[in-house]
Amino acid sequence: MNILDKIVARKREEVIEAKQNKSVSELEKEDLFARKTVSLAAALRNASSPKIISEFKRKSPSKGIINDQVSPEVVTFDYANAGAVALSVLTDIDFFGGSFSDFLKARHANPVIPMLRKDFIIDEYQLYEAKAIGADVILLIAACLTPAEVVSLSQKAHELGLEVLLEVHNAEELAATIGENIDIVGVNNRNLKTFETSIETSIALSEQIPDSFVKISESGLKNAETIHRLHGYGYKGFLIGETFMKTVNPGTALADLQIDLTQQSNLNPLVL
Ligand SMILES: O=C(O)c1ccccc1NCC(=O)[C@H](O)[C@H](O)COP(=O)(O)O
């Protein structure tokens, strides 16, 4: 059993419990359910420079505790101020230390910026939850869903006004799950068996993702040089958690990266 299998097994239990505690019609009555969502895909598609999706991530299976001294409202407000195109907030409790409370605090501190509910979606019920906490985008991980599940969950997400980020690790997952209701394709550089990250995964898959899909690179991204390199392969967005969260002030870490990105593109305008 790899880590994804363990996470998904626990997630199935959580969803059963959640459905017993709150019905879909109760979720539909939450104030944020009626909120009009903001498009991350459009913000990325129209961007001429690399854009950062900044993640609030307390801990992870690969690194253990990353930062337990930070508050979601402060960090995400600082991220948005430092120019993040979107926020990603973990809502998985057991493996990532996230929660709906973290997500809601971040949403209330940042009413307009696109926000990704970062979790392991396996059931339509979780899409209603995502809408009820004010998410704009949900994640579908090809490695833990059948192609038919990707189709039905992405259709339902669109019905609810949510955008869909499809995450793939290899060409087989991409070919099996890419479809009409996918808004953004994310290539995850992290090997879930070894936890090693390699940007070669993003490079290898870049040409196989049709141009009609906005593409982003995820995990293990640390510096402006790598981001400019991947931007050259057509990646518009970059999902970064640990590099920021392991610092005392994650918002400042993003601001510093933005300065590096601008300086490097000024030195060599062709990298844009
Ligand atoms: O981060 C992990 O250890 C992990 C383990 C198993 C499944 C998923 C995992 N991470 C989820 C993510 O996609 C990352 O949080 C995201 O891409 C940001 O990555 P990073 O910048 O390396 O924190």
Automatic annotation (TrEMBL):
Catalyzed reaction equations: 1-(2-carboxyphenylamino)-1-deoxy-D-ribulose 5-phosphate + H(+) = (1S,2R)-1-C-(indol-3-yl)glycerol 3-phosphate + CO2 + H2O
- A Pfam match is IGPS
Q: Which PROSITE patterns does this chain map to?
A: IGPS (PS00614)
Asked if the keyword Lyase belongs to this entry, the reply reads yes
Q: Which E.C. number(s) belong to this protein?
A: 4.1.1.48
Q: Which pathway?
A: Amino-acid biosynthesis; L-tryptophan biosynthesis; L-tryptophan from chorismate: step 4/5
Q: Which GO terms describe its molecular function?
A: indole-3-glycerol-phosphate synthase activity; phosphoribosylanthranilate isomerase activity
Supply the alphabetized keyword list: Amino-acid biosynthesis, Aromatic amino acid biosynthesis, Decarboxylase, Lyase, Tryptophan biosynthesis
Supply the SUPFAM superfamilies for this chain: Ribulose-phoshate binding barrel
Query: In what residue span(s) does the Indole-3-glycerol phosphate synthase domain sit?
Result: 4-255
Whether Amino-acid biosynthesis counts among this entry's keywords is yes
Mind telling me which InterPro entries this protein's record contains? Aldolase_TIM, Indole-3-glycerol_P_synth, Indole-3-glycerol_P_synth_dom, Indole-3-GlycerolPSynthase_CS, RibuloseP-bd_barrel
Q: Name one GO biological process term.
A: L-tryptophan biosynthetic process
Listed PANTHER family: INDOLE-3-GLYCEROL-PHOSPHATE SYNTHASE, TRYPTOPHAN BIOSYNTHESIS PROTEIN
| Similarity comment | Belongs to the TrpC family.
- Report the protein name in the record: Indole-3-glycerol phosphate synthase
What species is this protein from? Answer: Dyadobacter fanqingshengii
Per the UniProt record, the lineage of the source organism begins with: Bacteria, Pseudomonadati, Bacteroidota, Cytophagia, Cytophagales
